[in-house]
Amino acid sequence: MKATEKSVLLSIMKTRILLSIFLLAGSLGFAQVTPSVGVSAGILSTGVRGDASQSLNQLLESTNGMVQTSDRTGFFAGVNVNIPVADGFSIEPAAYYSQKGYTLSGDFGIKGLEFLGANAKAALQNQYIDIPVLLKADIGGLQVFAGPQVSYLVKSDLKTTAGVLGVNILNKTLDATDQFNRWDAGITGGIGYQFTNGVNIKASYDYGLTRMDANKSVNAFNRGIRLGIGIQF
């Protein structure tokens, strides 16, 4: 092939590449594909599902209701990036700081736990960084979303308190981080509504798929309900 022919061929290839770039840029501009950044925060009620919670229910039955279990109520806060991919559909990765855990309270007059005394409470306080990647559908402001979520355990504390006749006889916090799996995977989904000014409200449910304990010998999984408010810029 002659030098002039190579030059012409390279010129044609460059022209086609530039034309393709301009067409892609034009189509993106026409579709108005503009990512937006948002912030949100709210309350998070979490607990544990699986064999661990079932064993705990059996324990409750043996104490005639003197011990009560409850979810931990904490908060979450973070940021997201909403990326439109089609009319009414978007992908939304996010990162949230989330407080999770579980609480056991009441009269711990149970074999092996007598040292806690009466009116005792054992609270598992876990701090996670949650990273969900959501597929979101927007129907005139009404939003439906779902997707996978990966979480990293930053710290876990087990706080025990007990008192008799109004006197505090035990108040101790133990670092339980090493007892739990650092990484957690699950799915999350929910509904929300976004107003024209960007303010939005949402409710969602987290369903853990990875065993919580570090040895993965107990079928205990995270679960939680989120209620939040945010704004999309």
Summarize model confidence as the mean pLDDT: 81
Spell the H/E element sequence. HEHEEEEEEEE
Report how far apart the termini are: 56 Å
Biggest sheet: strand arrangement: 1-2-3-4-5-7-8-9
What does this structure look like?
The structure is a single chain. The chain is an alpha+beta fold and 233 residues long. It contains 2 helices and 9 strands; from the N terminus they run αβαββββββββ. The chain has helices at 3-31, 51-62, and strands at 36-50, 67-86, 89-106, 120-139, 142-164, 167-175, 183-194, 199-208, 220-232. An 8-stranded antiparallel β-barrel has the order 1-2-3-4-5-7-8-9. The mean pLDDT is 81.
Quick overview:
By secondary structure, the chain is an alpha+beta fold.
Structural key phrases:
60% strand, elongated, 9 strands, eight-stranded antiparallel beta barrel, alpha+beta, 2 helices, 233 residues
Task: Provide the fold topology.
Blueprint: H1 3-31, E1 36-50, H2 51-62, E2 67-86, E3 89-106, E4 120-139, E5 142-164, E6 167-175, E7 183-194, E8 199-208, E9 220-232
Antiparallel strand pairs: 1-2, 1-9, 2-3, 3-4, 4-5, 5-6, 5-7, 7-8, 8-9
